[in-house]
Design brief:
The complex is a heterodimer of chains A (173) and B (823). Chain A has 6 helices and 5 strands. With 173 residues, chain A is α+β, with helices and mostly antiparallel strands. The longest helix of chain A has 16 residues. Chain A is globular. Chain B is α+β, with helices and mostly antiparallel strands and 823 residues long. Chain B folds into 3 domains: 186 residues, Aldehyde Oxidoreductase, domain 3 (Alpha-Beta Complex); 259 residues, Aldehyde oxidase/xanthine dehydrogenase, molybdopterin binding domain (Aldehyde Oxidoreductase, domain 4), CATH 3.30.365; 146 residues, Aldehyde Oxidoreductase, domain 4. Chain B is 29% helix and 23% strand. A 7-stranded mixed sheet of chain B has the order 3-5-1-12-9-10-11, with helices on both faces. The longest helix of chain B has 27 residues. Chain B is globular. Classes of the chains: A alpha+beta (173), B alpha+beta (823). Chains A and B meet through helix 1, helix 2, helix 3, helix 4 and helix 5 of A and helix 2 and helix 20 of B. Bound molecules: FE2/S2 (inorganic) cluster (2 copies). One FE2/S2 (inorganic) cluster sits at the interface of chains A and B.
Amino acid sequence: MPRITVSVDGVTYEEEVEPRLLLVHLLRDRLGKTGTPVGCDTGNCGACTVTLDGRSAKSCSVLAVQADGSEVVTVEGLARDGRWHPMQEAFHAEHALQCGYCTPGMIMAAIDLLRDDPDPSEEAVRRGLEGNLCRCTGYTNIVRAVRRAAAEMSRVPHERAPGAAEGREAAAS
Amino acid sequence: MTEQLDAGLVAGRIAESGQVSEPSAEREMGRARRRKEDARLVTGRTMWTDNIQLPGMLYVAFLRSPMAHARITGVDVSAARSLPGVVAAYSGRDLAEEQGSLPCAWPVTEDIVIPDHPPMAVDEVRYPGEAVACVVATDRYRAADALEAIAVDYEPLDPVLDMTEALAEGAPKVHEAGNRAFTWKFAGGDIDAAFRDAPVVIDRAYVQQRLIPTAMEPRAVVATTDGDGFTLYSATQIPHVLRVMLAMTTGIPEHKLRVVAPDVGGGFGSKLQVTAEEVLALLLARRLGRPVKWTESRSEGNLTVHHGRDQLQRIAVAADRDGRIRGVRVELLADMGAYLMLVTPGVPLLGAFMYNGIYKMDAYDFTCTGVFTTKMPTDAYRGAGRPEATFAIERAVDELAHELGMDPVEVRRRNWITREEFPYTTIAGLTYDSGDYEAATEKALAMFGYDGLRAEQADRRERHDPVQLGIGVSTYTEMCGLAPSRVLGSLSYGAGGWEHAAVRLLPTGKVEVVTGTSPHGQGHETAWSQIAADALGVPFEDVSVLHGDTSVAHRGMDTYGSRSLVVGGVAVLAACEKVKERARELAAHLMEASADDVEFDGGRFRVRGTDEGRTIQELALAAFAAHDLPGGFEPRLDAEATFDPDNFSFPHGTHLCAVEVDTETGRCAIRSYVAVDDVGSVVNPLIVEGQVHGGIAQGVGQALFEEAVHDADGNLVTTTMADYLIPSAADLPEFTTDRTETPATSNPLGVKGVGEAGTIASTPAVVNAIADALRPYGVRDVRMPCTPERIWRALAEAEVTVPAQSRAAVPSTSEIAPEGGAR
Ligand code: FES
Ligand code: FES
C-alpha cells in the first residue's frame, strides 16, 4: 500500500493508504478529523471542502494519495490562538448557519473566494459559492456573512491565512 | 463529612472564581441573540452520527433493488461472506423471523390497508432501492465491495407508476389488497348549494410533484449493545418517538433501549421516520454482539429517504361576481408509494383543513384517496400537506381574480377573515385564534413596491418586451404546532402532541433545561435559554439546554410540524414557573415571611416593602446545602412540566414575488421577493428570520427546480445531486423579510410556529408570478417545477398567438419528465 505524508491542520501524518481511499475518508475515519463532513457522492454539495495547499478542494473528489506531500487545512485548523477566523466569526454574527452541516465547507470555500476577490459583490459571492449547497438558510445570511468577513479582513488581515507557508513550518517543527 | 458545607462559604468561593454573572437588564424575549450552537458548528467540533467510532465497530452496507417491482426468487450471500474483512452477510429471508414490520402510526380510516412492511424485502421488492441483502464488514469500503458478490434473482413484475392508472380496473397490484389505501372525506356546509348557480367557478388541476427532502446530512445509524441494553445513535428528528416505536417493532424492551440524536444536520420531515436501516442496525448489533454503523450515500438517500408531496389535486372554487367565495371543493389523489410509513397517510390530512386558507366561505368539501405505487413511500416533508393545500387555494384565488378582472390582492381582501373577526371558526372547523391579514398585507405591498411593479408590468406588456414581469401573491395561514392530543386522537393519530421540559437549578446557580424537543438546526439551545433566563431572572449564559438523548431527556415528542416552540418552549416556561414557586417557598422560609409577601423580580425574591431578599442562585445553594428548609421541602430546586395546548398555532403572512420571464427562452429569474410573516410574539428574531429564509428557499425549490423523476420502468432517474437540483446561492435572490406581531392567544408566550411557514407560502407566490407573466400569452398554468423548458413549451403550446415578434428557435429538448408543458 502506498505510504503518504500529509500535513493536516499543522500536524504531519504518515499513513499507509489504499490507492482508492478518498481524502475525506482519510481525514474522517483515519485521522479523526471529523469536522469535515460528507454530503454527497458526486462532488456536488461542497460540504467536504478543505484547502489543499492553500486552494479550496472538495476532499471527496481527491484521493488520499493525491494529497501526498501536501498541506491540508480543515475548518478545525482555522482558529489562531483560540481566536476564530473572521469568516467563522461572520457566520456566527450573521446567523449564516442552522444545522451547520454545510458550514465547514461553506466557510472554507468562502475563504478561498476572498483570496481571489477580497471585496466581492453579492452577485460574486452567490456565483462563487455555487458549488456549496445549503438546505437550511436560503443563502441570504451566508452572503451577508461572507461580505461581512471581507470587510473585516480588509480592516485587519487575519494573520497567517490558512495554507500559508508558516503552517507548514509549524507542522514540521 | 469532615468539612461542613457552608452556603455562604461556597457562595464566596463561586464569587471569587468569577462564575457569578449578572442577569442582563434587557429582556431576552425578542432579543437577537447569536446562537450558542454555533461554537461547535463553525469550528468542526461536532458530533454527527457518522463521526462516532466505537471499539470493534463494524460497517453495514445494503444491497438494494435495481427494480421497481419484482419477485425475489433467490438471494445468495455465501460468496460475500467469505471475502476478507466480511463478518456477516444476510438476506431478507435470513432476518425474516425477527425483523417485524415497520410501523404506520396514522391509520386514517377504519378500513385503511396497511401492508406488512418488512425492513428488508423477503419475497417481493416494491420500490427501487428497497434493501434485499446486507453485508457487515470491518470497514466501509470492504462492506461496499462485498455487495458485488451477492447474487439476487428477480422475476420482474409490472411497475405501478401512475395513480390514476393504478386505480383503474385490472391494474397491476402493488399489494394483494389492491392499490387503494384509503379514501378520507371531510365536509362543512352545503357544498351543492354553494356551487348551484354559482356565477363563477374556477376548476383547476394541479400536480404536486414528488420531492426529495435532501437534508444536507445523509442518514446515519450506529447501534451497540452491552449484552443487556441497546443504544441507537441516529440522525433522527424523533429520538423519543423512535424509541417507543422500536420497542414495539423489535421486541427490545423500551427500558433497555436508549436512543440518541447527536448533532443532526437538517431533517425537514425526512428524519421523522422509523427507518428500515434503524431497525436492521439494531438487529445486526444484537446478532453480532458488536457495534455497527451505517451511513447512507447521497444516491442511496435519494432512493430511500422517504419522499415528499406527490399529489394530484383538483380544486374547484365557486364564487359570486363580486369575488365573494361561496365554496371550495377538493379532490386529491395522494401517492403513498409502496408502503405506509410512520405518518404517510396522515400527510394529506394535515392539508385537509387548510384548503379554505384565510378565507370565509359557506361550504367546503374534501376527498382524498391514498394510492399505492411502486415508488419510495412518501411522508412528511416541510409543511406536510399544508404547502399542497396553500398552493391549490392560492393559485385558484389568483385565477379567480383574473377571471373577474380584479386585482388578486383585492379578491383576497374581499374574502379574508378581518382582524375584528378573530377568534374565527372556519368552514373546516378550526378556530384561528388571532391574526391580522390586513396589516401583514399592507406592509408587504409597501415593501414590495406593488403599484410600481404593476405599472412596470403594464409597460412591458404594452411594449411586447420579450422579458415579461410577473407578480405573484400568496396570503397564507397554516395549522401547526402539532399538539392538541385530543384533536390528533380524533384524527386517529397514534400518539399525543404534548411536550415536556425539566428545569434544574444547580448548586452554583447555573441552570439546566432538559427539553423533549429534538433540534437539528432550529437553535433550541439558544431560544430555550432565552425563555429560561427571562423566567428565572438568570443570565442567558448560565443556562444550558440538554436534549436528544432518551437517557437525558426522558420524555418528549420531538421536533416537527413547527411544534417545538409553541409546545416545547411553553413547557420550558411552565417548568421555570414551577421552579420559581418552589424557590419562593424557600425564600419565604429563609426570610421568615409569608410566601404571599415575597415578590420576584430580576432573579431576586424580596419581601414586599423591605430590602431583604435572596437571589435565585442563593436559594439554589441553600436548597443544595439543605441546612434550613421548610418542613417537607425536598432539597432541590427543580421541576418538570408537560404542556398540551388546546389549539393549533396559526401563523400567517403575505408573500410577494416578482419574476422576470424571458418569453423567448423560458428562462425565469426571481427579481424580488418580499415576505411579511406574523408568527406571533418572537423569542429570537434572528432565528425566526433564518427559518423564514430557509423555508422560502425550499418552497422556491419546488416551484422552479426540484422533482423526483422516474423512467417508464419505474427507476428513479434523479438519484444524485447533479440530477435532483436543490437551489444554490446563484439560483436565489436576497429575500426581504419583515414581520407583524399578533400574539397567539393559545399559549402564555404568545408565540406561533415558524418552521414551515416560508415553504408553505413561497411555492404559490412564485408560480402565481410566472402565471401572471404569461397570462397575456394564453398560458394558464405551468407544471412544477417551472423549468425554462416547461415555460418555453407552455408558451409554444398556448392558444393565443403571441404579440412577441419572433419566437426563438427550439431549444434542445432533453425532456426531463414524460408529461411536461402546460396543463
Ligand atoms: S461530499 Fe459533496 S462535494 Fe464532497
Ligand atoms: S446550515 Fe444546514 S445545510 Fe447549511
